[in-house]
């Protein structure tokens, strides 16, 4: 059984992840409802988040047309060999928020995928950072491509990382 | 209890991660031994991999001066809302391999951190990809900065993603 | 002799560039005065712009702590094989503005150089775009590294390109 | 009148650029012939290079399916405020070579444009570098998108800059 201390760290150095059938997410995210409706359903707990959200532990907090915000409680289980949160975890958070921001603008049967992402790491995140928030907003949305930017900040508005991404927009057949 | 099928996927949609004290990794990765000796110890099972390696599930397979290769069995637990491996997981794999390639060139008390990473996603990875391998090699190594590139490929040499990264090299005080 | 029409285009398809000794620029930009004073002197016409500014034809219009704005009259002489302004010209404009924004924060004998730049091209620029403006502002400025972003826009606020860059900050010996 | 010395530098700090109608280039590059035939015609002097090539001064030297190499004599007219070749000039050279490498793979009426470019600057180029060569080759070419990499090197194989780029491939209507 998990016993978490104040910093959100598992004193037992063990964590159990449980997830749901990702095909249900796929159906909703891509075809059944619009991107914005899908994300609102995730935010409101009506749809279970995809497996990666459970694995990494981030949560969708706010979503609007062209905008998405996710939060993460950084913990020791996210650590790289330097005992700070792995940059890949921060990249995952940025990719998640930036793709979500694009998804908010897409109707049913139109979806997107990340063509490329670019992340700058400004300051290490540790379990002592307690909670980080990643906000993403669209820079430009075209017919085939969209660009989007995101920033990860801590409690007192300090910047941990920022990124920019290009997404391909396409019809689902 | 975990029951894994052939593809490394958990049929029960549950996964338990166990890790070790990351401060031990930090001491070895940064100060106690050279970067190459640290990584060889990880590869040979003499040092426990850092928590993020346990969380994501990648393993160091090959390491040499200026080079590192990691492998990952992609599974459903890595999936994004589109039922493919989250791009952030691939970014994590690339960041891990690219940083390791730089670390191989650094003596004791000299370490590095990723300044920025740029990843292009070419083809989706799924559990059916079975095993992906990420190889990274240094492009240029200077006194203050190094640049490094990496590629993620599948069994029959198909390209899934590629990246480039800039690392800052610095003395540990 | 040059004969320019309304769009800033040389009807004779000939252009003569004249520049001044770049060592004078170097002395002022790096050592003699602060970065902000150097750039203000360029803006006010007290120091001749560096050769690349004459070659490409951009001009510094506004400068403040952490901020710089340059303008360019796009012309046929900037064209690539597709008869639009070469992306490299837009990258040059972004690099110029972003580096200038970092330079504004640096005192005498501290300078910077671009480690890497990343540019997204949104919409082609042509001579018909008449005038484009590139604004850059610092995202984060540290002791060794700074990150900065820039956008190129046209008259009615339409976005042509945006970029982000990492600069190394160092003492001049 | 221009007086050029051995290094291609204008001792008088004056340079006159002459170019041809870019619409002729556009017709050939996009529609009249395949990308490879267009570039071979440029290389062999049968088609005049586009204006930007004249402005910056680079020349196509080698071209093959998925590959292109351009050369540049760096001069004082390329200098930034730090009396080295402006990074934007190097970005232009990389963008040119990388786009050309993609163009070599495209038939008539199919063309490409740069979605985004990322350049790392390794070592300053000066007039003393005499001649730099930029080689680009395709990493992956898909139906809608291609990725390509390039490197700028000097005489004794020293690396000045490297880049990666994403191109959009599309039919010309």
From TrEMBL, chains A, B, C, D:
<dbReference type="Pfam" id="PF03061">
    <property type="entry name" value="4HBT"/>
</dbReference>
<keyword id="KW-0378">Hydrolase</keyword>
<feature type="domain" description="Thioesterase">
    <location>
        <begin position="83"/>
        <end position="159"/>
    </location>
</feature>
<comment type="similarity">
    <text>Belongs to the thioesterase PaaI family.</text>
</comment>
<dbReference type="InterPro" id="IPR003736">
    <property type="entry name" value="PAAI_dom"/>
</dbReference>
<dbReference type="InterPro" id="IPR029069">
    <property type="entry name" value="HotDog_dom_sf"/>
</dbReference>
<dbReference type="GO" id="GO:0047617">
    <property type="term" value="F:fatty acyl-CoA hydrolase activity"/>
</dbReference>
<protein>
    <recommendedName>
        <fullName>Thioesterase domain-containing protein</fullName>
    </recommendedName>
</protein>
<dbReference type="InterPro" id="IPR006683">
    <property type="entry name" value="Thioestr_dom"/>
</dbReference>
<dbReference type="InterPro" id="IPR039298">
    <property type="entry name" value="ACOT13"/>
</dbReference>
């Amino acid at each position: 059984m998990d016993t978490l201390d104040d910093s959100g760290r598992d004193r037992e150095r063990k964590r159990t992840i449980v997830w749901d059938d990702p095909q249900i997410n796929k159906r909703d995210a891509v075809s059944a409802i619009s991107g914005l409706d899908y994300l609102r359903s995730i935010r409101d707990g009506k749809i279970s988040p995809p497996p990666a959200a459970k694995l990494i532990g981030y949560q969708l907090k706010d979503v609007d047309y062209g905008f998405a915000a996710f939060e993460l409680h950084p913990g020791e289980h996210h650590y790289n060999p330097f005992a700070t949160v792995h940059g890949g975890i921060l990249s995952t958070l940025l990719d998640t928020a930036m793709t979500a921001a694009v998804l908010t603008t897409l109707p049913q049967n139109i979806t997107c995928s990340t063509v490329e992402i670019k992340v700058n790491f400004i300051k290490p995140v540790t379990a002592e950072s307690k909670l980080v928030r990643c906000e993403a907003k669209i820079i430009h949305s075209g017919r085939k491509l969209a660009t989007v930017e995101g920033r990860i900040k801590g409690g007192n508005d300090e910047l941990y990382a920022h990124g920019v991404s290009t997404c391909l927009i396409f019809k689902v057949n």
